[in-house]
Amino acid sequence: MKISKEEVFHVAKLARLNLTDSEAEKLSIDMESIIGFADKLNELDTEGVVPTAHAIPVSNAFREDEVVPSYENELIIQNAPHAEDGCFVVPRVVE
Amino acid sequence: MNYETVIGLEIHAELATKTKIYCGCKNEFGGEPNTHTCPVCTGMPGSLPVLNKKVVDYAICAGLAMNCEITRYGKQDRKNYFYPDLPKAYQISQFDLPVCHDGYVDIEVDGKTKRIGITRIHIEEDAGKLIHDDYSGTSLVDYNRCGVPLIEIVTEPDIRSSEEAKIFLDTLKSILEYTEVSDCKMQEGSLRCDVNVSIRPEGETEFGTRCEMKNVNSFSAAVRSMDYEVKRQIEIVEAGGEIVQETRRWDDTKGVSVLMRTKEDAHDYRYFPEPDLLPIIISDEWIEAVRSRLPELPAERRARYINEYGLTEYDASVITTSKKTSDYFEECVKSGCDPKSASNWLMGDITRYLNEKELEPSDIPFTAKQLASLLSLIQKGTISNSAAKKVLVKMFEEPDDPEKLVEKLGLVQVSDEGALKQMVDDVLAANPQSIVDYKAGRDRAIGFLVGQIMKASKGKANPQMINKLLKEALDNM
Amino acid sequence: MKFYELTAHEVRDLIKNKEASSVEVTKSVLERIDAVEDKIESYVTVLKDEAIAQAEKVDKKIASGEETGALAGVPMALKDNMCTKNILTTCSSKMLYNFKPPYNATVAEKLQKSDAVLVGKANMDEFAMGSSTENSYFKKTKNPYDLTKVPGGSSGGSAACVAADEAIFSLGSDTGGSIRQPAAFCGCVGLKPTYGAVSRFGLIAFASSLDQIGPMTKDVEDCALILNEIVGHDKNDSTSVKREYPDFTKALTGDVSDIKIGVPDEYFGEGINCEVKDAVLGAVKNLENSGAKADSCALPLNEYALPAYYMISSAEASSNLARFDGVKYGFRAEKFENLIDLYAQTRSEGFGDEVKRRIMIGTYALSSGYYDAYYKKAQQVRTLVMQDFEKAFEKYDCLITPTAPMTAFGIGEKTSDPLQMYLADICTVSVNIAGLPAIVIPCGYDKCGMPIGVQIIGKPFGEADILRTAHLLEKTITKIRPNL
After folding, report:
1. Topology (CATH level 3) of domain A5-43
2. What is the ipTM of this complex?
3. Which of B161, B315, C136, C483 could form a disulfide with C92 if both were Cys (CB 3.0 to 4.6 A apart)?
4. Yes or no: is domain C3-262+397-475 CATH 3.30.565.10?
């Protein structure tokens, strides 16, 4: 599996990572070897095999529609790098 | 060339649960920023979602009301994208196994029934709100709405005009209201839609390339955006151009749509099964339990009003569109009102008043019983129709029993024959020319004279009696 | 008496019998930390004052005759990916260098109810990604048996602090071997419970469908004791399983005559160090001598578990770690041009290389065009691996394997080639893929004196059986303490 530097940059964009050229270079080598290792999976015939998302076969975990007190605003924003008026602050979003 | 419009809709409706979809925070509009929040709905590290059972209940309910198949083995998926209103950087939604699929809604277009296919209904969480501050160049993030449960209803591309779309949306809204799945408060954004529009030459069977319109915040805006988009696409095609698949944002104040992104920059959402949540297995018993609680739906009610109350199809449709209005109407009838006049008043003066003041049917401040007594006052001849209109306005302003308001306003109709005869004699004495006109065969004269009496009596004279007495007096002259 | 050298059940008994106070034991552990922490570097945060205050509270409770929890007064450590209310919880990442959660993880809450005393938050590989604890943003933890060697990972701090007597016990988390491999490297006992047995609420997720919290202890009895305290359904974790959990300490009967052991050939092939192989097979022999039946068996799909694991865990991680964007908590880059740049710059500066690598692999595996080939394929292989185990468990009560192909390796030895580092997880990941319980205990030492760990894998919710087997096996092994 060949993974080009362009592909690495594309994936980095999806993952919101800024990469330098040399980082991308190194990643393309690492990813090629790891994804290449994953190509081993193709040795197995999985036609018709149901994918497993959870190892334990359980279902229907619900909560009732009952109100639980919310947290104080202070506790919600206490870790924010930048907060104002009880809100998280980000650079102006351009839509 | 003539073109056919093809429209498909994606409607997001906020569910009327008490709490959010994955945590116990209140599902409530407004509030100080970030006060209806907890570690779960603000995506704090280590927090985990637990699905509110009522959300599935409501989704099944909406699905049954829209004739859908219910998915017996469903799951939830993560839709990954970065945006400040999405604290986990993924939205928990459903990808390939939505709660409901393959249903339909029948709508009435020009007296004919048309069937609009429902592709799917899935559950998902709402995002937070951004408050933009141009002055400081920042946006403030409030997560109160984050995690409010939504259903997304996706239609087949079965709609052929913006008028049909509007009828469909109104029908859908009333279904959601009747089933009490959503409170459908438009001004609070609890119902929003995305619009997919394409055109094709009339007679063509292949679909054209579609464009998606986002940010459509009301049904009337939806209609405007569709009309705009159809026009835009026809212009492109007529000019020899080609429609490009893209997502556009509707700007309702400017009445235009602008390009948001093309197909090439379409998001790669990297959907995958949400590992923090388990499969949703829906049994027959569960479905039947929800079905047994389904209320009478608007279409059923409409049929009943026509058969039982003798309303016209049009009146029955209008009355049943809003559940609140329809419930109110039924209460009026139960209180002894004539269905026909109750529907006339509800569709006429009451709706007009509500529209003028931008109120909802639920804002009517007086009881159905009070409206029923008002109507019975007219029927008994205690007040005139026009006086009743005045009383109605008063009932909106200072809700009270109409009898009391009639007295307070001094609107009791004069039906005493003696007093009325006196008024007739007075007006005839004052208007000899009208007598001459009448005798000359000009019937209009009568109208003039009635008007004069009504004026003199400040509207309290019983108009039918006046008419009768005037005629008698003139004919005896 | 050196209190810090004691096990949890010994400390519990001393305190219960009023032969020692919790403050005395806690101070002894804190003094031990003072003495050796510079060398070992197990902790991101040591909570001296908080620990003594908590110990005093427990002592007061005991003095007043109030009922106390099963771990009353026992000093312990939590891996730094478990949320502790108002106490720094960093995941050993720059990204969370200042993060103080407003809430407790369910396990932290439970141990508080058991009256245990939290002495510190243990170092780890950043966001639990790694097998050596070299990926911590803060420090590199050393192996107490040889300070030039790694303690294993990702729960390297949790293992080293127990091995070096800096805590009586600790909790670790295990996504692909992160409890068991460091337990093996540091010569302590580590248990990864069945997926769903212990609540993950408040555990900062690496890979949600694989992560599980478990005890790291000085002996098997402690392991059962701690498991009793943390196990059980939690309404805040949808994936935690509602069922009756037994008293695991009662399972330690000393009788294994009914136990049928499978020894899968695939775990003893190429790449497995001979000393490791011999020690593990020796352990099987010891069990046979005690009456258990053992037989070689096959798990032919084991080699596919590793690539499947790396696809699934990286995919889930890429999504779980997307929330770290400099907006709500933790690190934010100082310089950025706009919102997207704020995200990208924060994430590029805040995450270490290994975390970025996994995010990249996971994003790739989920991205349009590759989902079916990698993510879906891996989930299908997961089904097959589970069926492999199911088949084996039709015949056997537990499976015995090495924990790692080798003993602890040198610091810096494997950092250059990520794939080589990943291959070190070959013996542990399939257990996570299948959601099974597995315990690791020391079963010998190599010629350099480094501990060798044996892994006993159980059926789903078969913790009692593997604890019983490990408990008996433990008695046949002479334990060597690290020389610090």
Report:
1. Histone, subunit A (1.10.20)
2. 0.97
3. C136
4. no
